[in-house]
Amino acid sequence: xxQLTLINADIIMLDMECVENNEILTAMxxxxxxxxxxxxxxxxxxxxxxxxxxxxxxxxGVGVAIPHADTKYVIxxxxxxxxxxxxxxxxxxxxxxxxxxxxxx
Length: 105
Prior knowledge:
Elements: E1 12-16, H1 21-34, H2 42-52, E2 56-57, E3 63-65, E4 81-92, E5 95-104
Parallel strand pairs: 1-4, 3-5
Antiparallel strand pairs: 2-3, 4-5
C-alpha cells in the first residue's frame, strides 16, 4: 500500500499577517499553485466557493476555517495550513450572517 503525505512543509504558512480573509485565501492558493498542487483556476474557485459557502468554524479556543474548492482544480493532493498572527473574520459555515475570528486555516 502506497503512503500518501498530504501535509508538506512547502505548503505550511506560519504567523501570516493578513487583514481580510481574501488576502490569506489568495496567499494560500498562490502557494498551492506555485508548488504544483493546484491549477491556476484554483484561486478564483476557492474565492467563489468561500463567498457562496463559508467555511468558518467557531470552536472552543482558536477559530478555524477550512476553505477548499472542487477537485477538478487539483493537480496533486495536499492540505495547506496557515496560522495568522492576528485573527481575521470568516463567515460561519451554515450561518453566513455570523462571523468567527479565525487564526488557523
